[in-house]
Design goal:
By secondary structure, the chain is an all-alpha fold. It has one domain. Helix content is about 70%, strand content about 0%. It has 21 helices and four strands. The strands form two sheets. Strands 1-4 form a two-stranded antiparallel sheet. The protein has a two-stranded antiparallel sheet with strand order 2-3. Strand 2 and strand 3 form a beta hairpin. The protein starts with 6 loop residues before the first helix and ends in a 6-residue tail after the last helix. About 55% of the residues are buried.
Length: about 600
Amino acid sequence: MQPQLTFRAIVVGMLIGAVMCLSNIYVFFKTGWSMGVTLTACILAWAVFKGLNAANITKAPLGLLENNALTTVASGAGFMTGGGNMAAFGALLMVTSDRPPSIPIIFWFAGIAALGVFAAIPIKRQLIDEEQLPFPTGTATAETLRSIHGADAGGDLEGGKKARALAWAAGFGALVAFFRDAKAVWMPFNIPGAIEIPLTLAGRALKEWTLTLKTEVVLIAAGALMSFRTGWSLLLGGGLTYVVLAPALLAQGAITTTGYKGIVAWALWPGAAVLVGSGLTSFALDYKSVLRSLSGLTAMLPGFKKVAAPAEDPEECPSWWFPAGFAVLGPVVIFLMGWLFHIPVWAGLIAVPLAVLMGFVAARVTGETDVTPTKALGPVTQLVFGILTPGNLAGNIMSANVTGGIGLHSADLLTTLKTGKLLGASARQQAKAQLFGVLAGAAVVVPAFNLIIPDPSVLGGDAWPAPSCLVWAGVSKAFANGIGALPESARLAAAVGLLLGIALSLLERLAPKHLKAYVPSASGLGIAMVIPGSNAIAMFIGAAMAEWARRKNPAMADRLVVPISSGLIAGESLMGILIALLVVAGVLSK
């Protein structure tokens, strides 16, 4: 048996995961998206150990299954920004002046993520072993690992090309960020943060409507990792919001000022409604997955037919890990819910089992579609707790965080377990690897947030749009305080947005295959309404460039789009964090 969860795989996996967590948190508050981790992590790990071998620091090369375990550690850490974690935390700080202490919040995130890991154990036997769901990203990661760990020179050639592309892109992204954001008297020059478009709209410069060409390559790279359909939908949504609606609203007095904050205070409501309507409709249309989830859940209960692997199989996770994990961590999470967010114990006793059920459903939908439905599960939980604990904004947000966190980390582990299944890896070792990863991610994500966003009042501004935070905060306000508290125009816009989200999801599902590419993406359209227009333009440019590459040379695009985009994101985001540290140290000025 090849070595898997070695000490070096744990250490390097935690380091790579921590770096990707830092990168993801930067990207998340810029774009609202959390970027994938596994494909980038396995290429980085391969490159790191090639360098260590060449320098005679290590002798044994990184094996295929060892890289798989390392990637699982990195994925657990890197995805700590997803599942509603940073969306909920950012939203919490936007609606309340009470900032929870860092150490308990670290335990909060770690506890939720670990619950997701334990919840995945019985789900794996049902969805991967018995039903063999595809989990597309997990399958793609297995193919990537096989290609870069090929026994012949082809593996080295493939891995080398991807690693070099990632490294060059990271260097370029870091240089752009440094010469743009590093402010000091000794700096020879600074790249402008945005290039103005010399046109006017409704008698005002386009920059007043947030329409500029930003020099943030992280936005272009994020767009390149999206589908072209999502990219042009972002441009469509940005144009609808800032070219059509905003000037009309200003003329009618529905908004009183231009600029991002003035416009998004109104645009938030239709944008959030599009996302919620689309998410819930897609969820409802996947009712067969939901029903299969429920039947699969009963199949795991005592007295029903078992699908688990034999108990003596040393490579499978023991069945007792699931109840033991929840017996230990469940009370901790419920205690923290009450202490930090004033959620009654009885509500916590509802939230954790509800989150497990939602996590099972989320895992199935991820396995079948590669999309974790947090946009649907979060609002469902917010609605439930809006009814159970009316007026408790903090509790409403963070109870949804429980659902999103458990669902995401269950789906994340199952994605990597699918990779392991295809490669012949040990599920037991991968579950342990994921736990190491979530511990590293929780320890990094809170201090990183405090460093990058020292003043939460910047959230929702042009520099840090934090669109997902705006949506979570808006939905919680609506459910906790009642829709009637909104201005009439916002209520009407939310109703229209909800109907639009429903319609787009129905069109996407029912349209003939050759027409689906022409149906706007509800996610792209909704997010575009809560980010600056300049961000939508930049992400569209990235999506268009990637689409051009795919049409011009599909093989080259398949090999290089992900490494180049990931490198640009890593380079700019990590340089941004380094600049923040240098500002704190007094080396650079703000």
